[in-house]
Write a structure and sequence with these properties.
By secondary structure, the protein is mainly α. The protein has 11 helices and no strands. About 45% of the residues lie in helices and about 0% in strands.
Length: about 210
């Protein structure tokens, strides 16, 4: 089979490269461009082939041993959740993933923080900026992270398990927690109007008069 015939074959089905002995760089590139997962059949792929595979499918990184940071970044920028599939001695189990890779992953998909051990404050903030709900996956969110999230939207306080709330946050937003405990959360939306009532001392009177307490 000529190289041209091999090229046409992998352009139709990237997995066909597994049947080609010693494929050229051009054949490897064509194969992964058709299907990124075809990289699993390529021995010692070059950086260019790895990047092409990732561009086609971010999860192809699971078949790349010891990927460079550039390849890792390309994968997580395409799909942040692909961080779970990175196999690299320096990024073993994501425990020592570079800050840049972790940051890029959560910026693309906040849920990627679930796979990051001991994320930095910057990574945590980036994750909750992308999706406030993921604060549930941060083991001990700092007061700064909680404050940031709640300031963005008061409803976010209900995304933080109460046992994780910082004491100062509990104190500052006690009126919100009281509403939650009163069972009126589903009918309530946090707005500046409720804060105004609270700040002017009308909070208790309003709910008392309406039979909440």
């Amino acid at each position: 089979m000529t190289e041209q015939e091999q090229l046409e074959l992998v352009k139709q089905n990237g997995f066909a490269i597994q049947y080609i002995d010693n494929p050229s760089e051009a054949i490897c590139l064509a194969a992964v461009q058709q299907n990124g997962h075809a990289i699993q059949f390529i021995k010692n792929p070059t950086q260019e082939v790895c990047l092409a595979a990732i561009k086609q499918n971010g999860f192809a990184i699971q078949y790349i041993d010891n990927p460079s940071e550039a390849v890792c970044l390309a994968a997580v920028k395409l799909d942040g959740l692909s961080i779970q599939d990175i196999k690299n001695p320096s990024i073993q189990d994501i425990k020592n993933a570079s800050e840049a890779v972790c940051l890029a992953a959560v910026q693309q998909n906040g849920y990627a923080i679930y796979y990051i051990d001991n994320p930095s404050l910057e990574v945590c903030l980036a994750a909750v900026q992308q999706n406030g709900y993921v604060i549930r996956f941060i083991k001990n969110p700092s007061e700064a992270i909680q404050e940031y999230l709640i300031e963005q939207d008061k409803n976010n306080i209900f995304n933080i398990p109460e046992d994780k709330l910082h004491p100062e946050i509990k104190k500052k937003y006690q009126y919100l927690l009281s509403m939650k405990r009163a069972g009126i959360l589903s009918a309530w939306k946090a707005t500046w109007e409720w804060e105004l009532l609270y700040e002017h001392g009308y909070f208790f009177f309003y709910f008392y008069s309406n039979g909440v307490f």
